[in-house]
Amino acid sequence: MGLFRSLFCTFFMLKIISAQPATDPNEVVAVNKIIGHWNLQTKLNMSSIDPCTKNATWAPDTANPRIACDCSATVCHIAHLKIYALDISGELPQELFMLKELTDLNLGQNVLSGSIPAEIGQLSKMQYLSLGINNFTGLVPPELGNLTQLQSLSFSSNSFDGPLPRELGKLTSLAQLYIDSSGVSGPIPQELSNLKSLQTWWASDNRFTGKLPEFLGDLKALTVLRLEGTSLEGPIPNSFGGLTKLDDLRISDLSNEDSSLNFLENLTSASILSLRNCRITGQLPEKLSTFANLKILDLSFNKLTGQIPNSFQNFAALNYLYLGSNNLSGELPPKLISSELLALDVSFNSISGSLPQNALGISMNVVGTSINDNASRDRKTSAKLNCLQGNTKCTDIISSTSFSINCGGTEIVSTAGIKFDNDSETLGAASLYTSPNTQWALSSSGIFISNPNGPKYIAQTDSQIRGTLDSELYKTARISASSLRYYGLGLKNGKYNVELHFAEIQIEDSQSWKALGRRLFDVYLQGEKVLQDYNIQNEAGGSKRAVVKTFQANVTNTVMDIHFYWAGRGTCCIPFQSTYGPLVSAIHVTQASDSVSSSKSDKKSVGKIVGIAVGSAAGLLIICSVFYLLWTKKAPARTRVDTDSPGKG
Ligand SMILES: *[C@@H]1O[C@H](CO)[C@@H](O)[C@H](O)[C@H]1NC(C)=O
Ligand SMILES: *[C@@H]1O[C@H](CO)[C@@H](O)[C@H](O)[C@H]1NC(C)=O
Ligand SMILES: *[C@@H]1O[C@H](CO)[C@@H](O)[C@H](O)[C@H]1NC(C)=O
Ligand SMILES: *[C@@H]1O[C@H](CO)[C@@H](O)[C@H](O)[C@H]1NC(C)=O
Ligand SMILES: *[C@@H]1O[C@H](CO)[C@@H](O)[C@H](O)[C@H]1NC(C)=O
Ligand SMILES: *[C@@H]1O[C@H](CO)[C@@H](O)[C@H](O)[C@H]1NC(C)=O
Ligand SMILES: *[C@@H]1O[C@H](CO)[C@@H](O)[C@H](O)[C@H]1NC(C)=O
Ligand SMILES: *[C@@H]1O[C@H](CO)[C@@H](O)[C@H](O)[C@H]1NC(C)=O
Ligand SMILES: *[C@@H]1O[C@H](CO)[C@@H](O)[C@H](O)[C@H]1NC(C)=O
């Protein structure tokens, strides 16, 4: 017994000694300098304690800041460093690159700035590296290609510029690559075709150029691919047909060449397929209905023709079906609305038919179709707006020459005495709403895919809004994950002034990572793009600050069409999941007096820009210049107009 005890004690003491080897002294110095550099002493005070102390409070997975060591060799090394969402700022300190044994570095969701030094390439043991949501600038360092052990790399939501380095193609162990909204531009390097282990690639909202590369079809391990809001050109290559593991595919806003849906044939595991505005032609593939996991199918703003296949009545799991703004025809399959379906958008197609009894429970948008939806007020609106497809002339009883809406809010009379109508109805994922006075209607489509139970299409704040006497008007706003369209109805034909009121109320203005979000969206007036990549914060000079854009547009068919569209641009998730897409606070439309211009030279009847932001000296100057131009009968400046644009409906 005594012998056993002493043997045990010896073993136990040896164990303690051997379990606690010395920590690399260079790393101890470096880590203390890093803590000092970011003023983290109060959160992480180890000035007189070994950072690798056993069972330290800063070592568990959940600790933040976290420092954890690998003591498996004769010396302890710092292997994990996490300083996450603590708003550390400034540049990366050189001491960071002395932690050569790091396998896991997470500096995500801070406001780090400057460029990433080439020395990052020395941290060759790295497996998990997150620099996402920061304020880094400069080039993405090619030296990242030296970190060949990397399994996960994120530098999403930063302000880099220049190309995506081809050296990233050396990261053949990479399973996750998050580079959305990072600022990179130019072609997607061919070398990325070597990333055979890549499962998740978020790459939306980067200015990639050239064609959507064929070689991405070689990344056979992909389960998640996001390429929304790039500058890539179509078509979607047939090689994508080989990505049979895809679960979540999101591509949007491809330009130039048309695509077909033939590649989808074998992507049978997909649960999310979102291919908005990709110039897709041809018919809806019957086979889609056999995709047992498919929950979200968004093919809106394409050029699909033919009927909705009857097989679409057999989806097993489909919750959201978006087919709006295509050229589909024929009857709506009578049993399309199943128990699983939560939202249906077939707006702006040549579809007819009527909706079954069970249709009342789901969100639906059938505006611009010949479908009888029975809800009396909205049916009349649908009928009125059917003409916007271009086939027939809109006719309506002329009832007004103006309308005003407090988007997302209740009725308000502004300091100028204008009554802004109540627009606080709760909308679903596909909705048409007609105001009680039938002077305007609202068509809304889109689901915040990663957050379907999140924002309910209205944003609000309790904060005061600066730069206006009408703060209340801006405290609520309509938001959308795809398309938000207001229609003035029964308007006397003629020239109108359109005032669009905006204030950013979701993205912060602060020294925090929460201020790093970028909201970008497009606006079409009477089918013409008048604002592209509009950023409210930039225009207003901050968040919770009002800005008014004024345009002139002609009504020739009793309808005013004001369309807010998300082209996949901007950050997705700052300060919270699904912070993106259009946001509008109020709309005020009035008939313009004819005194400004009487030119008959231009036969076009749609949205020319007149004014820019009102309320600044520059804005006034621009307006003066425009009036001068109009006076001298020269055409005012126009924004770039894309004729194959979603606004064409
Ligand atoms: C860190 O801890 C040491 C003693 O362990 C103490 O003397 C020092 O004041 C602490 N520093 C901070 C910033 O809390
Ligand atoms: C560390 O924690 C483990 C388990 O939580 C425990 O068994 C061990 O005694 C602790 N060691 C020290 C040195 O505190
Ligand atoms: C790291 O990458 C750079 C650029 O890709 C290269 O020039 C350098 O030789 C690499 N260094 C090491 C140690 O591999
Ligand atoms: C789908 O798989 C079949 C059988 O392997 C193959 O013949 C066909 O070409 C594939 N389709 C596409 C679009 O890749
Ligand atoms: C829509 O389809 C019809 C045939 O159904 C065709 O005549 C028409 O040109 C198409 N319109 C567009 C804009 O493609
Ligand atoms: C819609 O109207 C048709 C006839 O106009 C009627 O048969 C049907 O029951 C109505 N549907 C609903 C949901 O009220
Ligand atoms: C405003 O609209 C909402 C939703 O349509 C409605 O419930 C509410 O009663 C309206 N408020 C007023 C004052 O009309
Ligand atoms: C990010 O950096 C820019 C300059 O590049 C600066 O103007 C901005 O204030 C920074 N953002 C934050 C939240 O620190
Ligand atoms: C409106 O129509 C008039 C002529 O009828 C034309 O001169 C003017 O340019 C049009 N305005 C816009 C914004 O298209």
TrEMBL record:
Origin superkingdom: Eukaryota
Subcellular localization(s) per the UniProt record: Membrane
Main location group: membrane
Alphabetical keyword list: ATP-binding, Glycoprotein, Leucine-rich repeat, Membrane, Nucleotide-binding, Phosphoprotein, Receptor, Repeat, Signal, Transferase, Transmembrane, Transmembrane helix
GO cellular component assignments: membrane
Catalytic activities: L-threonyl-[protein] + ATP = O-phospho-L-threonyl-[protein] + ADP + H(+); L-seryl-[protein] + ATP = O-phospho-L-seryl-[protein] + ADP + H(+)
Leading EC class: transferase
Sequence ranges assigned to domain Disease resistance R13L4/SHOC-2-like LRR in this UniProt record: 75-181
EC annotation from Swiss-Prot or TrEMBL: 2.7.11.1
Transmembrane segments: 609-631
Domain Malectin: 402-587
Pfam family, one: Malectin
The keyword Transferase belongs to this UniProt entry's keyword annotation: yes
Membrane topology: Single-pass type I membrane protein
Residues making up the signal peptide according to the UniProt record: 1-19
Molecular-function annotations in GO: ATP binding; protein serine/threonine kinase activity
Name the record gives this protein: non-specific serine/threonine protein kinase
Organism: Cinchona calisaya
